[in-house]
From TrEMBL:
<keyword id="KW-0560">Oxidoreductase</keyword>
<dbReference type="GO" id="GO:0004506">
    <property type="term" value="F:squalene monooxygenase activity"/>
</dbReference>
<feature type="domain" description="Squalene epoxidase">
    <location>
        <begin position="209"/>
        <end position="477"/>
    </location>
</feature>
<comment type="similarity">
    <text>Belongs to the squalene monooxygenase family.</text>
</comment>
<dbReference type="Pfam" id="PF08491">
    <property type="entry name" value="SE"/>
</dbReference>
<dbReference type="GO" id="GO:0016126">
    <property type="term" value="P:sterol biosynthetic process"/>
</dbReference>
<dbReference type="GO" id="GO:0005783">
    <property type="term" value="C:endoplasmic reticulum"/>
</dbReference>
<feature type="transmembrane region" description="Helical">
    <location>
        <begin position="457"/>
        <end position="474"/>
    </location>
</feature>
<keyword id="KW-1133">Transmembrane helix</keyword>
<dbReference type="GO" id="GO:0016020">
    <property type="term" value="C:membrane"/>
</dbReference>
<keyword id="KW-0812">Transmembrane</keyword>
<dbReference type="InterPro" id="IPR040125">
    <property type="entry name" value="Squalene_monox"/>
</dbReference>
<dbReference type="InterPro" id="IPR013698">
    <property type="entry name" value="Squalene_epoxidase"/>
</dbReference>
<dbReference type="Pfam" id="PF13450">
    <property type="entry name" value="NAD_binding_8"/>
</dbReference>
<comment type="pathway">
    <text>Terpene metabolism; lanosterol biosynthesis; lanosterol from farnesyl diphosphate: step 2/3.</text>
</comment>
<keyword id="KW-0274">FAD</keyword>
<dbReference type="GO" id="GO:0050660">
    <property type="term" value="F:flavin adenine dinucleotide binding"/>
</dbReference>
Length: 524
């Protein structure tokens, strides 16, 4: 038996215990919600829409029709709420964000009846991820065996998905889209009553609704009164599309764990997205217009690109069309305010390396829709606000798992290689992925959103240092390797608690100690 198997057995025990425990917990939290929504479905759709008369008044105002806003508009409109959406730009977006949807996010699209929006946009199916480091690679499929046929990751042009969702939402008679820029929230006596906005033709206007849901994205300028979080720009993405280039493993995304971490995944039948991520703390991003960027990509980045992709990478640089985007992180710290609600990146942002943003956004949309289903109207904003506080606890299994794994990847894979303990941690993490099975495969099942569980993640965080110590002792211990392992054992809990602590230990692991967790719908 080699050292991997010995430590595998030990860790399997720890994992098995935690997985069974967390599975039970998820069932406890999840099942009542499901029954409640099925029950609500029977009566909600028609009655709610017309019960208070079709007098032109709206129930819910949505600010921003990006990934979260357009899905939410459809979900709430389908349930019969009268929805008014104000979006700054209703033309099809063209941006380098939100192109890879995890299979867990696709499951949420199905729950929202929006899965047809990834059809007819040249979306590609993705069945897993390949991690590559220093010439070695490991292929980890998503654990899709127990899911219906057709469930997998999807990658596409972000704007095409958004436009499809907008069109589907706009086809509902009780959903109205308007192009305009919301400038502020209208607040009276501590209650948000609606929004002030500039219409497409530049007129100042106001619109009112008993509930305003703000989903104006990561750069939100409206979240101030609804959240106390501060955005941190951690790294930057440099992206371009490589055409007619075959990935070494078709229908797999390719995560390159080099000094400058990179991602490659298909976004069309003949298009591969190349995204290079650079740490903004140590480096200034080169200028695209002066040609510095092209030079930087060829000289500093290309040597780290896996050889099978390097030619296509270099060839594409000269074609131009290089884009950059800021990668942010922001934990959710909502300030409950009657009449207002935050969702999507306006509420919570995580690093994009694990491609989890849309999965969290769709999961939050499902949850919010389900919470609103038992309500007949929203006429008491204070009671609705109190009731909706449970949203922030109920979202934790998905949000905390995906946020924390993204945070860990950021801390480990974007750390400076000059720090020997982080360099060793990087190496150990890759070796851990290479173990596959319940180890690397287990991590992939969490980051895919298929089995989101903060407790499973904790068991991996326990297993990692154990594995590191094992590696240092076998086949025979050396002082250098033992020193590195000892450093790792000391550093790993710090990294883990920093990342998971940001999610709120009580909300994540002890939700039943929070009064909001038990709150039922208001009866008025
Ligand atoms: C570089 C990068 C790569 C990413 N890659 C992935 C990935 O592969 N997979 C993944 O799941 N996630 C990814 N993400 C994250 C993902 O893009 C976001 O989580 C997702 O777009 C959030 O959706 P949203 O609706 O909150 O915001 P957005 O999709 O940004 O939508 C916000 C909308 O609000 C509108 N708006 C803004 N201000 C106003 C205003 N004042 N008035 C009216 N309208 C307004 C905007 O025009 C926009 O349409 C990535 C992020 C980055 C930065």
């Amino acid at each position: 038996m080699d050292y991997t198997s010995i430590f595998g057995n030990l860790v399997a025990f720890l994992l098995g215990f935690s997985l069974i425990y967390s599975f039970k917990k998820i069932r406890k939290i999840g099942l009542p919600m499901k029954n409640q929504s099925d029950e609500a479905l029977k009566w909600s759709a028609k009655e709610k829409s017309w019960s208070s008369g079709n007098d032109g008044r709206v129930d819910i105002m949505i600010v921003g029709a990006g990934v979260a806003g357009s899905a939410l508009a459809y979900a709430l409109g389908k349930d019969g709420w009268r929805v008014h959406v104000i979006e700054r730009d209703l033309t099809q977006p063209d941006r380098v964000v939100g192109e890879f949807l995890q299979p867990g996010g696709y499951l949420k699209l199905i729950e929202l009846d929006l899965q047809d929006c990834v059809s007819g946009i040249d979306a590609q199916e993705v069945f897993g991820v390949v991690f590559y480091k220093d010439g070695r690679s490991v292929k980890l499929p998503f654990p899709l065996e127990n899911f219906p046929k057709g469930v997998s990751g999807r990658s596409f042009h972000n704007g095409r998905l958004i436009q499809k969702m907008r069109n589907k939402a706009a086809s509902l008679p009780n959903v109205r889209f308007e192009e305009g820029t919301v400038t502020s929230l209208v607040k009276e006596k501590g209650i948000i009553k609606g929004v002030s906005y500039r219409t497409k033709v530049g007129q100042e206007s106001t619109a009112y609704a008993p509930l305003t849901i703000v989903c104006d994205g990561g750069f939100s300028n409206l979240r101030r009164s609804l959240s106390s979080s501060k955005v941190e720009i951690t790294t930057r993405s440099i992206g371009f599309v490589m055409e007619n280039c075959d990935l070494p493993h078709p229908n797999y995304s390719y995560a390159v764990l080099s000094e400058k971490p990179m991602l490659f995944y298909p976004i069309g039948a003949n298009e591969v997205r190349a995204a290079v991520m650079v740490n903004t703390t140590g480096e200034k991003i080169p200028s695209i217009s002066s040609g510095e960027m092209a030079n930087y990509l060829k000289t500093e980045v290309a040597p780290q690109v896996p050889p099978e992709l390097r030619d296509a990478f270099i060839r594409t640089i000269d074609k131009g069309n290089i884009r950059t985007a800021a990668n942010m992180s922001m934990p959710a710290s909502p300030c409950p305010t009657p009449g207002g609600f935050l969702i999507g990146d306006a509420l919570n942002v995580r690093h994009p390396y694990t491609g989890g943003g849309m999965t969290v956004a769709f999961s939050d949309v499902v949850l919010l829709r389900d919470l609103l289903r038992p309500l007949n109207n929203l006429s008491d904003p204070v009671a609705v606000c109190k009731y909706l506080e449970s949203f922030h606890t109920l979202r934790k299994p998905m949000a905390c798992s995906i946020n924390s794994i993204a945070g860990l990847m950021l801390k480990v894979f974007f750390a400076n290689d000059d720090d020997p303990s982080m360099k060793e941690l990087k190496h150990v993490c890759f070796e851990y992925f290479c173990l596959g099975g319940i180890f690397g495969g287990g991590l992939v099942s969490i980051l895919s959103g298929l089995h989101p569980s903060p407790l499973s993640l904790i068991s991996h965080l326990i297993a990692l240092p154990v594995f590191a110590v094992g590696r240092s002792l076998f086949p025979f211990p050396s002082p250098k390797r033992m020193r590195a392992a000892a450093r790792l054992v000391m550093d790993a809990p710090g990294v883990a608690s920093l990342v998971m602590g940001a999610e709120g230990i009580r909300e994540t692991f002890f939700p039943w100690t929070l009064p909001a967790y038990y709150r039922g719908p208001p009866s008025y």
